[in-house]
UniProtKB/TrEMBL annotation:
Protein name: Cyclic pyranopterin monophosphate synthase
Organism field: Calditerrivibrio nitroreducens (strain DSM 19672 / NBRC 101217 / Yu37-1)
Family: Belongs to the MoaC family.
GO-annotated biological processes: Mo-molybdopterin cofactor biosynthetic process
Pathway: Cofactor biosynthesis; molybdopterin biosynthesis
Keywords of this entry: Hydrolase, Lyase, Molybdenum cofactor biosynthesis
Domain of life: Bacteria
Assembly with partners or alone: Homohexamer; trimer of dimers.
Pfam families: MoaC
Length: 159
C-alpha cells in the first residue's frame, strides 16, 4: 500500500483531494480513562467540583474534533455535518469508555476527527478530575470503524 503523504522526493505534503468525489463518510473511535473507583463514583454522582464531567467532556470532544486540521499537520479542514459522543462507565473495572462518531459528505475521511474527539474527551475528564486522582490512565484509543471513500469499509477485528 502506497503512502500518499509524501511527494516524489520523499517530502511530506497534504494529499490533493481536488479530483476525488464527495461521498458520505462515517468514522467511529473509542478510548478509555481508567481511574480510582471513588473518582468514578464522584463523576456519576455529579460531585466533581468543576462541574458535569460528561457534559463538559462531550462539548470538548466536539470542539476538538472540529479543530483536528489545526492540530494534525496534514489533515484537511473539513465541514463536519454530525458528531455524537457517548460515555459508558464501567464500575466493575473502574473506567469510562468514550465513543465518538463523526459524519460528513466530502472528499476525505473523518477518522482523525473521531480519534481527536476521543482524545480531547479523555483529556478533559483527566483535567476535571486530576485534583482527586492524578493516577488516571488514558488508554486504548482506536478506530473502530469507518465507511465511505475509495478504501471502503473498515471494521476493527473483521477481515
Amino acid at each position: 500500500m502506497k503512502l500518499t503523504h509524501f511527494d516524489e522526493e520523499g517530502r511530506s505534503r497534504m494529499v490533493d483531494v481536488t479530483e476525488k468525489s464527495d461521498t458520505f463518510r462515517v468514522a467511529v473511535a473509542s478510548g478509555k480513562v481508567y481511574m480510582k473507583p471513588e473518582t468514578l463514583k464522584r463523576i456519576l454522582d455529579k460531585e466533581i467540583e468543576k462541574g458535569d464531567v460528561f457534559g463538559v467532556a462531550r462539548v470538548a470532544a466536539i470542539m476538538g474534533l472540529k479543530k483536528t486540521s489545526d492540530l494534525i499537520p496534514m489533515c484537511h479542514p473539513l465541514n463536519i455535518t454530525g458528531a455524537d459522543v457517548y460515555f459508558k462507565p464501567n464500575t466493575e473495572e473502574s473506567y469510562v469508555e468514550i465513543t465518538v462518531s463523526v459524519k460528513l459528505t466530502g472528499k476525505t475521511g473523518v477518522e482523525m476527527e473521531a480519534l481527536t474527539g476521543v482524545s480531547v474527551a479523555a483529556l478533559t475528564i483527566y483535567d476535571m478530575c486530576k485534583a482527586i486522582d492524578k493516577e488516571m490512565t488514558i488508554s486504548d484509543i482506536m478506530l473502530l470503524s469507518k465507511s465511505g471513500g475509495k478504501s471502503g469499509e473498515f471494521k476493527r477485528g473483521s477481515l
